[in-house]
Amino acid sequence: MKIALPTRENYIDGHFGHCEYYTVFTIDDSSKEILNQEIIASPQGCGCKSNIATTLAEMGVSLLLAGNMGEGAVNVLRRAGIEVVRGCSGDVKEVALSWLAGSVMDSGEMCHAHEAGHECQH
Fold first, then answer.
1. One-character DSSP codes across 51-106
2. How far apart are CA 29 and CA 22, in angstroms?
3. SS3 for 4?
4. For a Cys staple, 8 with which of 13, 29, 109, 121, CB 3.0–4.6 Å?
């Protein structure tokens, strides 16, 4: 299994579409251990309008652990077959390990700033 985390300076970026890069961890399904870590460049522009969902899906990513994002990005990722968990913060490896331990849940919160035509300030 592969999980992706929008990253800025090795921490979860508070806004998916503005991250510096994506950290992708390959997880051993039986032992729940991290086997590999990759860095994927973030495309220019808004996350929901970029090709990042397709890129991550083609890499085999099935889960995105994120800070926050708009509804458009959540929908694009889900259509690509990627589950989204929002409300994450902190060091990306620690967040991934917390998720593997079962202590990370989706906050259910969405950024609505895009709908109002304003820039999100996470």
1. SHHHHHHHTTEEEEE-S--BHHHHHHHHHTT-EEE----SBHHHHHHHHHTT----
2. 21
3. strand
4. 13
DSSP codes, 5-65:
EEEETTEE-SSGGG-SEEEEEEEETTTTEEEEEEEEEPPSS-GGGSSHHHHHHHTTEEEEE
88 in Cβ contact with 68 (< 8 Å): no
The amino acid at residue 111 is C
**pTM confidence score:** 0.83
pLDDT of residue 107: 52
Q: How confident is the model at residue 4 (pLDDT cuts 50, 70, 90)?
A: very high
